[in-house]
Amino acid sequence: MKVGIVGATGYGGLELIRFLHNHSAVEQIELFTSSEEGVIFSSKFGHLVQIADTPLQKIDHDVLAQYDVVFASTPSGVTSELLPPLVGKGPKLIDLSGDFRLKDPTSYETWYGKKAAPFTSLQQSVYGLTEWNSEAIRQATLIANPGCYPTAVLLSLLPLLKEQLIDPNFLVIDAKSGISGAGNKPSQTTHFSEANENFSIYKMNTHQHIPEIEQAISIFAHVDTTITFNTHLVPMTRGILATTYAPVLPGITEAQLVACLQTTYEKHPFVRIVTDSNSLATNRVKGSNYCDILVKVDSRTNRATIVSVIDNLVKGAAGQAIQNMNVQFDLPQTTGLDVVPFFI
Amino acid sequence: MKVGIVGATGYGGLELIRFLHNHSAVEQIELFTSSEEGVIFSSKFGHLVQIADTPLQKIDHDVLAQYDVVFASTPSGVTSELLPPLVGKGPKLIDLSGDFRLKDPTSYETWYGKKAAPFTSLQQSVYGLTEWNSEAIRQATLIANPGCYPTAVLLSLLPLLKEQLIDPNFLVIDAKSGISGAGNKPSQTTHFSEANENFSIYKMNTHQHIPEIEQAISIFAHVDTTITFNTHLVPMTRGILATTYAPVLPGITEAQLVACLQTTYEKHPFVRIVTDSNSLATNRVKGSNYCDILVKVDSRTNRATIVSVIDNLVKGAAGQAIQNMNVQFDLPQTTGLDVVPFFI
Amino acid sequence: MKVGIVGATGYGGLELIRFLHNHSAVEQIELFTSSEEGVIFSSKFGHLVQIADTPLQKIDHDVLAQYDVVFASTPSGVTSELLPPLVGKGPKLIDLSGDFRLKDPTSYETWYGKKAAPFTSLQQSVYGLTEWNSEAIRQATLIANPGCYPTAVLLSLLPLLKEQLIDPNFLVIDAKSGISGAGNKPSQTTHFSEANENFSIYKMNTHQHIPEIEQAISIFAHVDTTITFNTHLVPMTRGILATTYAPVLPGITEAQLVACLQTTYEKHPFVRIVTDSNSLATNRVKGSNYCDILVKVDSRTNRATIVSVIDNLVKGAAGQAIQNMNVQFDLPQTTGLDVVPFFI
Amino acid sequence: MKVGIVGATGYGGLELIRFLHNHSAVEQIELFTSSEEGVIFSSKFGHLVQIADTPLQKIDHDVLAQYDVVFASTPSGVTSELLPPLVGKGPKLIDLSGDFRLKDPTSYETWYGKKAAPFTSLQQSVYGLTEWNSEAIRQATLIANPGCYPTAVLLSLLPLLKEQLIDPNFLVIDAKSGISGAGNKPSQTTHFSEANENFSIYKMNTHQHIPEIEQAISIFAHVDTTITFNTHLVPMTRGILATTYAPVLPGITEAQLVACLQTTYEKHPFVRIVTDSNSLATNRVKGSNYCDILVKVDSRTNRATIVSVIDNLVKGAAGQAIQNMNVQFDLPQTTGLDVVPFFI
C-alpha cells in the first residue's frame, strides 16, 4: 500500500507516521503540505531523522489520486475543500478533521463558524467510529474520523443508551483533555508557563463536539437527546478522560451495565472494560489505541458514573484512522496498532 | 499572639507557617510533633532555613494550653483525641482534619472508617466556612476547618441553593484536585513517574467529603439533598477546580444566578465572581486565599454549569484556617492573607 | 513612594506587582504600556482582579518623571531608548532588561545582535548585584538589574574567585532554567506539548549572559577569565540551578570554600549557604528572593562543584530589582521581600 | 525464543514487556518474581490487560534454565546471587542491574555499599555496550547491561577519546535524568508534590556510575582517567541528557570531532549525530532506542561541549538489553526496536 498524508506537520500527522512506520501492509509513505514544498521533513522534526528524511511534497490532486489511501490531518475548514475532488478518483480518503462529521451543514456552520463542505460530500462521508460502523466503513470512500472527545464518550455511552439502561434525558458529560488536543500551534493558553500547573475549563457549553456526539447517539443508539458537555484542560500532553453522569433506568443494576459493556465489546480488540474502580487512568492507554471503560452505580442516588479513557492522539485521532484503513482493506484491525501502552 | 502548630510537617502545617510568618498579629510560632522532638525544623525542610530554625517540641497539653491559638494539621483520627482535652483550657483550637466536621458520629465512622471524636466535642465544634458562618466562628473555641473540596463546592453552590435558583435534586459535582491534596506521605499513586502525565478518577462515589457537603447544604441553604460527587487527580501540585451541573429552576436566568453570587459575596474579600467564561483556571488563585466562581446556563438544556477554583492548600486548608483565626480575634479577615496569586 | 512599571504585562512586571502589593513603603503602583492604553489590567490577567483593576497608561516621559521609581521590564532593545531621557529627571530607574549591563557597547552588539544604549547611559548605569554593589546602588540613578543566570552564578563564584580559592582558568558553568525565563511570548519551544516531558540544551556557547558574567567577575573578583557556559531548559515554570566546576587551588580545602561563602554572606539576608549535599533544589527558594549555595570538593579530582539555586523571576529579576530599590531608599533590604519559599 | 523476565514489576521489566511484545523472534514471555507468585500480572498493571494476563511465577532455577534468554531486572545486590547458578546452564543471561558491570569487586563494594558478585561471574560477564562490544556480546553467556548514565556518556565520549581528539584529563560530565531512573519505589524525593516543579542535584561526586564510566573508557578508549561526574533530577518521567565539557587537543577542529562521531556510528542504526545545535532534546528519542549526539567547540575557550540524549528506560535499560539479545542470536539489532520516537 502507498499512503499519502496531507498535513503531516500536525500532531495527528506525526502520530500517523509513528504507527504507519510499523504497519506491515504499508510500503510507502509520502508527506504533503500546502506551504513547505521541498523541505526535508526530518529537518523540521529531529526525532524523525533516519525515519522520514523525505521532502515535503506540494499538494497535487493528480498525484494524490494515485495513492491507495490519503489521510488528511489538516485543520477543519481546509479538508472540506481538499478532499471532495478526490472522491471516486481512486484513493480511500480518511479525514481527521471535523469537516465531514456533521451531516447537517447548518449545524456545522453554527458550531464551527466556518463554511460547510459540499452537501454531496457530507452525504457520501461515513462516520469512522470503528467499533460501531465497520460495515459502512469497509465500503466507504470518504471517512470522517471521529473527534477525540466523541470517541471517548460514544464508546462508553452507546451500549448503555442503545440497550435502554440509562436515562438519555439527563446526560452530563464532564470531559478532560491533555494539551496536545489543542494542536501544534503556539498560543497563550498552551504557553508552557501558563498551562503548566494549571487546570481550566474552556468552551463552556459551546464545544463543536457536542452536535457530533448527539448525532452519533441518534444514529447508533436510536435516541434523540440534548447533552450537557463541558471540557477541561489538563497539564499533561496526552490523554482524555470523560466522566459521564446519568440516572439508571428503574430496575437496572450496576451488574447489568457492566455486562452490557462486556458483551458489546467482547470481540473488539481495542475496548477494555475495567472493573476495579481504582485503576482507571489515562496512563493505562497512553501511546496506544485502547479505550478503557469503567461504570459504577451510586446506590445513594441510583445514578451511574461512566468513565472512559483514551490517548487523544491515538484512539482519538491517528490510531482510529489507521484502524479504519485496516477495515477498508480487510486487514485485522490491530495491524500496525498492536502496541503496549506506555504507563510510565 | 502566640501560635502553636501540631503536625507542622504536613503540607497544611507548612502552609500555616508560610502565611503566619507574615501575619502582623502573630508574635511567636512553635511547632509540635508526636515523634521528632528536638529536631530542628529547618533541617527537615531546607526552604525554612533562617525562617523556622526552631526545634520540634513534644506534644504536651499543659504547654499547648498556654497558647492563644492551636492549629492541628494532624491526620483524621488523630485530632479527635488530641484536641478535646484542650477545649475550654484557653487556646482557640482550629482543626484542619475531618474529625470535627460531621455532627453525626455514625456518619463519620461510615465514611472515614475510624472512630469518631467524642460526641460533646462534635457538638461544640463550629464549621469554619468563613463566609457563611463568621458569627459562630467568632465565638467558637473549637473550629472544624472545612475540607478542600467542600470549600470550593459550597462557596459556589450555597447562594444558588439558598435562594432556590437551582434544582437541589440533581446536583452532579465533578471535582478535580492537584496531587498535594493527598498529603506528604509517598505512595504508588503519588509516585512521580506514575502520577505525572496521568489523569485519573479515584474514590468513586465514596469520598468522605460527600457527607460534609450535604450537611453544610442542609445547615446553610436549608435544603436536604443527596449529591453525586466524584474526584479526579490532576498532574499538578496545587489547585482544585469543581464543576457542578444543576438544572435551573423554572423562570430563572443566568443573569439572576450571577447577580445572586455577586450580591452574596459583595463584602467578602476572598470570593471573586468571574464573568468571562474563558478565564477560570486554577492559576488565577494559586498560592492565595481566593475562591473564584463562574456560572453559565446552557440555553439548550437549561442547566447551569457552576465552576469554582481554589488553592487546595490555602483557601482549602491553611489560608481559611488563618481567616477563621482572624475572625476569632476580631482582626480584618485579610490579615496575613493579602497576597497576590502566583498565576505563573 | 509612587512606583511606575513599564512593561507590566511581562512576567518580570507581574512579579513586581506581586511583591510591591505588599511593600510597606509603596503607596501607589501605576502600569505603563506601549500598546494597550486604557485596558484594565485585570481584564488581561484574571488573577489580579481586585488587586490591579487599573487601566494601562500610555508611556509618557513627563508623567514618568513624577514617579519615585520607574521599573522597566520591557525587552532588551526597548529600554535602551526608553530610559535615557529619564536619567536625572527625578525617578530612580531600574531596568530588568540586558540593555545597560554591558559597559562595552561593542560587546552588547555582538552578543545581543541589537543596537547598544547610548554610551553615556552605559557609563552612568550601576550593576545591581545587590550583595556585591550596594554602595554604588545606593547612589545610583540608573540600575542595570542583573540577568537571571548571572545572579545565580556570580553569587556562588565571586567569593571563591576573589579569595583565590578556585582556579579561574577552567570555569565550566552548566546552567538549567525553568521555562518562564523565556518570557510570556508563545513559541514552538515553549509550546506545552513540546516543552513538557522534555529537557534540552539551547544557545550553546552563545548565551548573552556570558559577557555579563565575565565582566562582573573582572569587576568584583578582579580576575579576567573566559568562561565555558551553557544553558538548558527544564520542564518546569520557575527556578534556576547552576552547577559550576572549577579546580581547587593547591592546598585549599572544602572547609575553606564553605567558610569563605559563609563569611561573605553572613550579614546578607537572602543568601543561604547549604551544607547538606542532599538538599539543594530549586523548590527551596521557589517564589522567594533567596539564593542558596552549596559547594563540595571531590577528593578524587580536587575539583569543586559549586551549585546555586534561585527563583529566576524573583532573585533573578523582580525580587532583586525591589531589593535594589530598597537599598536606594535606605530601607531594610528585606522590605516587601520577606516571604517564605513555596517548597510545594 | 522463550524469554523469562525476573523482576518484571520494575520499570525495566515493564519496558522489556513493551518491546518484547512486538519482537518477531519471541514466542513466549514468562514473568518471575520473588514475592507475588500466582498474581495475575495485569491485575497489578492495568495497562497490560489483554497483553500480560499471565500469573507471576516463582523464581526456580530449574525452570529458568529451560529458557533461551533470562533478563534480570531486579535491583543491584539481588542479581549477584540470582544469576551465577544459571551461568552455563543454557539460557543467555542479561542483567539490567549494576551487579556484573565492575570487574573489580572492591570497587563495587566501595561504590555500591553491597557485597559484590562472585569473582568468577564478574570475570565471565561481558559489558553490553552494544555499539562497542558486539563481538564479545555475541559469544557471551552473561551480559552486564550498561547503566543509563554510562550509556549516554560513553557513546558520546568513546570515539573522541579513542581517537585522541579531546583531553581526557579534564572531563567534566554534568548529567540530568528524568525521575523514572529512580525506579518504581515511592520515596520523599520522588513524591509528586516535591519532585514536580523542582530541579535538584543528587549524589554529588558519589554516583555509582562513576567507576563504570571510567572502567569503560579504559577498556574501549585505552585511556585511564578520573572523571568529574554529577547527576541532577529533572521533573519529567523519561530521558537523560548528558553534557560533557573537555578541552580540545591542539590543532583539532570541531569538524574533526563531528566527523569522528559520524564515522564511528555510520553503520550503527541507533546512534544519530546531530549537527543543528538547536535541536538536541530528550523528546527526540523518547520511547525509542536512539542515542542522539551533538558536539560543538567554543572558539573562545577551545573547549568542546559534547551532548547526548537517550530514553533512560530504553537505550539506557530495556532497549539496549534487547539489542544485546538480538546480537547474541544473530538477529538484526533493530528487531523489535524499530519504533518511532514519541516527540510529543
Automatic annotation (TrEMBL), chains A, B, C, D:
<dbReference type="InterPro" id="IPR058924">
    <property type="entry name" value="AGPR_dimerisation_dom"/>
</dbReference>
<dbReference type="InterPro" id="IPR050085">
    <property type="entry name" value="AGPR"/>
</dbReference>
<dbReference type="GO" id="GO:0051287">
    <property type="term" value="F:NAD binding"/>
</dbReference>
<comment type="pathway">
    <text>Amino-acid biosynthesis; L-arginine biosynthesis; N(2)-acetyl-L-ornithine from L-glutamate: step 3/4.</text>
</comment>
<dbReference type="GO" id="GO:0006526">
    <property type="term" value="P:L-arginine biosynthetic process"/>
</dbReference>
<dbReference type="GO" id="GO:0070401">
    <property type="term" value="F:NADP+ binding"/>
</dbReference>
<dbReference type="Pfam" id="PF01118">
    <property type="entry name" value="Semialdhyde_dh"/>
</dbReference>
<keyword id="KW-0055">Arginine biosynthesis</keyword>
<keyword id="KW-0560">Oxidoreductase</keyword>
<comment type="similarity">
    <text>Belongs to the NAGSA dehydrogenase family. Type 1 subfamily.</text>
</comment>
<keyword id="KW-0028">Amino-acid biosynthesis</keyword>
<dbReference type="InterPro" id="IPR023013">
    <property type="entry name" value="AGPR_AS"/>
</dbReference>
<feature type="active site">
    <location>
        <position position="148"/>
    </location>
</feature>
<protein>
    <recommendedName>
        <fullName>N-acetyl-gamma-glutamyl-phosphate reductase</fullName>
        <ecNumber>1.2.1.38</ecNumber>
    </recommendedName>
</protein>
<feature type="domain" description="Semialdehyde dehydrogenase NAD-binding">
    <location>
        <begin position="2"/>
        <end position="140"/>
    </location>
</feature>
<dbReference type="InterPro" id="IPR036291">
    <property type="entry name" value="NAD(P)-bd_dom_sf"/>
</dbReference>
<dbReference type="InterPro" id="IPR000534">
    <property type="entry name" value="Semialdehyde_DH_NAD-bd"/>
</dbReference>
<keyword id="KW-0521">NADP</keyword>
<keyword id="KW-0963">Cytoplasm</keyword>
<dbReference type="InterPro" id="IPR000706">
    <property type="entry name" value="AGPR_type-1"/>
</dbReference>
<dbReference type="Pfam" id="PF22698">
    <property type="entry name" value="Semialdhyde_dhC_1"/>
</dbReference>
<comment type="function">
    <text>Catalyzes the NADPH-dependent reduction of N-acetyl-5-glutamyl phosphate to yield N-acetyl-L-glutamate 5-semialdehyde.</text>
</comment>
<dbReference type="GO" id="GO:0003942">
    <property type="term" value="F:N-acetyl-gamma-glutamyl-phosphate reductase activity"/>
</dbReference>
<dbReference type="GO" id="GO:0005737">
    <property type="term" value="C:cytoplasm"/>
</dbReference>
